[in-house]
Structures are given as structure tokens and as C-alpha cells.
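Thanks for the sequence, V.! I ran Glycoside hydrolase family 19 protein right away. Repeating your input here for the record:
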Amino acid sequence: MSTIKNVLARLTAATLVTGIALTAMQTSASAGELPSGNHRIGVLSNGALQVKEGNLYASWVQEMGGGVEKFDIAGDRIGVLTTDHKLFVKQGNLWESWTEQAQNVKDFRLTGSRIGVLRDDSTVAVKEGDLNATWVEQTSGVKDLELSGNRIGVVFDSGLATVKEGTLHSSWVNQMDGVADLELSADRVGVLRTNGTVAVKESNLWSNWVEQIGNVKKLELSGSMIGVVTNDGLATVKEGNLYATWVNQTSDVADLQIAGDRIGVLTTGGVVTVKEGGLYGSWVNQYGGAQSFRLAAATSNQGGQHVSQQDIVNIYGSAYATDTVAAGLPDLNAEMQAAGITSPTRKAAFLATLKHESGFRYNAGEAGNGAVYKGRGFIQLTGDFNYRAAGNYLGHDFLSHPEDAAKVEWSAKIARWYWTVARNINASADAYDMGGVGRAIGYSYDLDPTESLNRCASYKKALAYFNGGSLPVAESSIKCTR
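Predicted structure:
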């Protein structure tokens, strides 16, 4: 591998928004992740790449002064494809040096610890690990490449989309013909067909497609959000399950990007503007004269977790410092990411619910209930209709094996399914409506008002904790009763 020196960091004069320069890196995260708060925005203008890190008013740092054809940012990695078809990647802070990765490249993707290249001869290779890892050949005859988590997807020249999941040597699973663009995010697969229609599936690679919308020229998936740009330039986004309602964002849009709770657009006039806080945030102009842009979301806290056992203990006490709680957290964090449970209010609503439903125990069972389909797991899945619906979605027979709902490999998945698919509880959390959360969870009304008020108190504790010690809204704005 050869290395070129990074261009000296300097501020650009082409910004629409100026802000406070970055003075130091935040707490470090593991490879491929950004520390909490260190969201990134990148823009390409006249072949030069600028990136900012932090809040929407941070200052730009020039990463490469010219000769850039395409770029990508994912976690703490930045990649550029130069006009002579060479791929360079850097990892770490914005002032790291570039490392040449490949030549004869026409497109590439970054995700986590993986780098994928689509070469000029339409072959695809992917590497995994550090920047010096070895390339593993994947397939040929490809026009589009996508990476997300442990999934690799391609669209062949014929229009067939196929995806593999797991290792770099896993088998391909064909998805659909007639595909113009393929998008991957968490456990979702989305296709934009050549006729401008969009379909999305979630859970496993053999799930059924759900039709979304037509007249589309751009598709974007991120966590629990689906975004499109229509042929007339309207950007619209939905959040939650696949049947959620579209929320129009803005018009005259050429490109759309989503990462974490940020939504960004490139207007037809070359202006990049970004909002944070989800679908109803306020736009903040970022850059003028842009060719393209990308967003990268930071991890929510140290170690790449949305919630640690120490967080739970800090909020609710040492009673939860048990091996059982610790054993369920890796899966729970993964499903929180997939469900978009990443903002302070969503995490607080989710944790308050799990505290009262299961005590954060993945293997919890409803005490004193001998029914076959009694409450089990993090979210206390209850009733044969819910066991059936969860099984249909997750591809597992919980009706025949109800005890599996309280196993670590299924408990968090079921919680995510109930939170975002069976219900759309994120919407209530976003509105600071614990009464709405309670209605969706469905505990007995005979317990009210005490139970609802207790859950709301648990929510407020977690909300203040994840918001840096104080509530983000007036306490009177939080609805506690159903």
C-alpha cells in the first residue's frame, strides 16, 4: 500500500454557514465508529472534498484539494475515488493520512470495517478488517454495489439484485429483477425498480416485499427511516414500520441522505441543507455550490452502545447490575440501532418500558401465569396472536416453541418488532407522550393511574440522564397518562 500526505487542514471560504472550529477530538470509539456527538457531513465541490465534524455549525476541514470524483464517509472512515480511478481511505480523525486501497475503480462503498469496490471491469471485491486487509473477490457483471453491516448487495447488468449476509464467503440470495438501484440498512432491503417504483422488505432475505411509492428517482434507507426523491424533486421520508405515513420534507431536491437522526438534501441549485432531530427538525444550510454530499452518524455513547449496563445502573440503581442484564445488552443494542431507538427520548421511553415489563431481563417470564402464550422476554410478548405475528415476521415458529421468545437470540428481536412493526411507538416517544407508549404496550388499565405515573417517572429519569442531566422540554410538556 502506498500513502499520500493529507492536505493541510484549513477552513474553506465557500461555506454558507460558519461555526466554531474543532479544537480537539472527542472520546475515542472503536474502529469504524465515531464518538458520541461527532456526526460528520462531507461535501464535494469542484473536485475538492470538505468534511465537518460535530454540530451543524462546525467549521469545514479540507480533506483533498482536488481531483476527487466520488467520496463516501462511514463511521470514522473517509474514502475518495480520484479522477484517475484510484481509491484512497483514511481512518480516525480528519487529519489522518490517506492510504491507497485499489486502482481501476469506478465506484466503492464503506460500512463498519468493510470496504467494497466496483472495478472498471464490473467485478466486485470486498475487504474486512483494517486498511491493510486482503481483498476477497465477490462476483462480476455488476452495475451497483451496496454494503450495510454484514450484508453485501449488488445489481447485475441484467437488473437482477442479489444479497448475501454473514461472511465474505456466504452464498448469494436473489432478491428481484428489473432493479435500477439497491439500498441496504440494518435488516431492510430496498429496491428502486427501472419503472420508478419502490419496494422494501425487512427481517430476513426471504421476507415478502412491501410496495412503498412510485414516481421515484432516488431511494435512501437508514435505520427505521425510508426516504425518496420523486421525479418532480420532492423529498419525502417515513419512519417506523413499512406501512408508516410519508412526511414531506422539501422540494427542488437532487439528492437525499439520512444518517442517525439527521436528514440532508442537495437542492437542484447545489445547496446542501441538513436537519437533525428527525422528520420535523429545522433545516440549517451547510454549503453552496456542491456536487454531492454524504452524512455519517456518530455512535450514541462510548463503546458504540446505545445503552450500557452502567447507564441502567446510573439511572435505576444497582439492582440491575446482574449477569442476566449484561448478557442481553449486545443484542438489545443491535436491535435499538435497527429500530432507530437512538435519540434521548426514544431510549428513555424504551428503557422505562423494559424496566417495568421485564426488569431488562431477556429471559423474563410472566410470574404466576401458567398459560402457554404468557408474557415472555424483554417486551413480554403475550397471546397466541402476537406469538404468531412475531414468528411470521422473524421467520420462526413461536407458536410451536413459545419458550424461544425468552431466549437471548430472539428476545431483543421481538422487542424491536413490537416497538416498530406491530406498533409505531417511536412516534409517541418523539412527542414525549408516555401515555401513548403505555397504550401501545397495553398493560392493564386496572393498574392506573399508579402504573402509568410510575412508568412516566422512570421515563423522566432516563430522559434527563441521556439529555445531559436535565429534561429537554418543560415537565408539563410530558404526557404521562393514557
